[in-house]
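Worked example (supplementary).
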Amino acid sequence: MSIQTELIGLPPRSPSRFASLRLGDFPLIPALILGGIAFVAIFANVLAPHNPEIGSLTARFRPPVWQTGGSTQYLLGTDQLGRDVLSRLIFGARVSVVVGFTAVIFAGVIGTVLGILSGYLGGWVDQAIMRVTDTWLALPAVTFAIFLAAIVGPSMWNIVIILGLTYWTRYARVVRGEVLSLKEREFVRLAIVAGCSKWTIMRRHIMPNIINSAIVLGTLMLGVVIIAEATLSFLGIGVPPPQPAWGLMLSDGKQGLMVGRWWLTIFPGCCIMLMVLSANLLGDWLRVKLDPQLRQL
Amino acid sequence: MKRYIARRVSYCLLSLFLLSVTIFFFVRVTGDPATLLVEPGASEADIAAIHQQFGLDRPLWVQYGIFMVSLAHGDLGQSFYYRMPVMELYLSRLPNSLLLASVAMALSLLIGIPSGILASVRVGRFWDSAGKLFALLGLSLPSFWVGLVLILVFSVYLGWLPSSGSGSALHLIMPAFALGWYFAAAHMRLTRSSMLEVLGSEYVKLARLKGLPQSLVIAKHAFKNALIPVLTLAGINLVIMVNVAVVVEFVFAWPGIGRLLYEGVTFRDFPVVQGVVLMGGAMIVIVNLLVDILYAVIDPRIRLES
Amino acid sequence: MSASPLLEIENLSTHYVSAQGTRVVRAVDQVSLRINAGETLGIVGESGSGKSTLALTILRVLPPAAQIVSGKMLFEGEDLLQKSDVEMQHVRGKRIAMILQDPMASLNPLFTIGDQVAEPIRVHEGAGRATAWRRARELLKAVRIPAPETRLTQYPHEMSGGMRQRIVGAIGISCEPRLLIADEPTTSLDLTIQAQYLNLLRELQRAHGLALIFITHNLGIIAKMCDQLAVMYAGRVVESGPVSQIFNTPAHPYTEALLNSIPRMNDSAQRLTAIEGQPPDLAALPSGCAFAPRCVRALDRCRVEAPPEFTPEGGRTLRCWLAASDSAPRDILVAGGTA
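After joint prediction of all chains, the assembly is encoded as:
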């Protein structure tokens, strides 16, 4: 669910006991999970036992291997077109990883640049950018994303662009705040006095100091973006079939729900949950580690 | 206080203006809005008529003018699929969404606020950790998945609750829960941190120093102060809930505006999509304003600002 | 020493323990004090010397990270450390009251003045609303707030700082306590108002027979208000005794340095005398005397062994090796720790 965190006012969080299996402080399990998902995404071709897009119509709606009717050929069962759930999950990871990271980076770049410009240049540039940001934020992300999807039509790259356009505002806000306080610091003033141009200062002095916040925000946004993508796919306006995306699998699974075909719903949902949970925990840890001041994120 | 309200109202108007510009811009960004504004399979004549109606051959600012004029009249266009004015369609579905959102909000506050208070008063101990876990799950589980799982458990396996439609209180329970789940977690976190902040304040310290029993300190001194940010956000969240209920309404076939938005997208009924988004954004901006005003009434510091 | 003291603190220690249990800040370390009824005891020290923590310890209103590690606190013969929290509630505000430093922060912005002043009266004496509000009005009059009737229904942010602090004072005396602890009550006030406030406190003290513990970093106020004085450094009381004696013949090098650092009108010196160095980190106290690194008269022994508290005559105490020759130690302070 893609909800703006500012409007709902999510307060600072400390890492929960849930992630207490750490090496020292590092949330090992979330990191392993994320790493595992990334690994699966990269090597999907090798790891998946079946073709995720083409199924065998004779093997429709097979339950997972441990239930009656299941088979070792389709470990986690099959869907309405006889496609192997496990393989689709594996390839779905690829979609989630690609869309997730790309969208986060895309939103991050736009948001950071605008945030720096807004914070550093001030004046009407700041006002203009801030007003736009506020307005953008006024629209709930889901609604806005749906609106954009209705205009441009579904495709994986469109989704990335849409998500980027929806979420850059969060970066802009935070980065601007950081820049405002950085502006007062000694080394920036020295650079001004030394005659550096605005652009040089922004590029060489401000930007490197913002990277930390941007990274932390990025990890926190990853979870949000993944859920947003899943939501859009679930509604049928995200990644188009037959490409396997977890949200899309949930949408397919919905039909089988009433007759008890639980595996089509539970497994994709668990994958989403694991990925988002891990991203959130990792982001929390990073936030505390990199800069205690970021606790207000 | 008058100045405060005046300022807020002007922000509101500015935001509404920018909202309309944004929507306007994006509809035209793909080049030819006519493809969106006509039904699929329309004839040449229809397309020409649309060009005429929206002034698509005229300069942009004229188009914007036409756009704003119709908005001012409450005219959001005509739905292709339902063959009725979008505004009428919207208003007919809105009460359903409001009902769902209200119940979901009530649930989220009933769960969120007490657990947040409990977590703050028992910091570091069991309830706090339980609360943090709950909050983490709330953030990480998409609401529609929660809905699907609920259906699986309560409709398919237990057969207690109906899986879709509306009409009785029983129909309301699962969607409200699925929708409210995320917000319950958010409200819990906010209540907790707000309480912690207030509990560390000087006036709470003085209240304890006065010898007031702990229950009075929390219930009277801490609670009211801590609740201000929570209720403020709750007000805004209500409207957000209405808007993001899209998926939940879809899953449970609840006839609200979220479902309407989905239908609009699926049936390629663009006026509906545009209408829902515009109204949604406008509602949020206006509710923000109302909440700000309410804030001013509650908090004497703002009320008496001369 | 006449009748038994109103409040007698012996070897009190309060430590702040970090969440992981790794960092221990010894905010209050083996503090012993006594105050008699009607007396004024001043506690002076730099920021971080433990004065405020000491005050909060007396009333046991400490944050969860703080633990009272050792000691006894006898108030009117009862050990406050043995009391349950409910029993302490009956002590707070009623028998021992406290005034905090920042009046704007101490008053709840969402409730009226009347409500907040009447509150302790209603809780401790079970008074009804009307009675309590009447008492509140009288209290506002007693602290010299003009037009008390209107003030009762106003909110804290509508008053000036001086008035707010008076209201806090009114809350303090509302239930006729025997002891009032004032933690830097004038630090947030304008200079011109400070003197007025101090006079008010003295008046209230005389009128109600209050004992007063006055915490401050301002020696001038001590000179004006207090009978007895305790000097704190790094959580320990380094010197205590009658104010006039200590001012005339300070025994501890820190006290001496403090007194010397006050600029005087007829001083011919060009520069202000400051005390060299920084106060120590209370989580990592040196093994010897805490003041040794900054002390001009430090002996070798001072750097190695922390001095115990000595009692030279005249009702004074002194925690310094320079007193070793004159008197027997009151307690043993083992290297940087407690025995």
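Two points are worth noting when inspecting this output. Chain B has a mean pLDDT of 83. Residues 218 and 292 of chain B are 26 Å apart (CA to CA).
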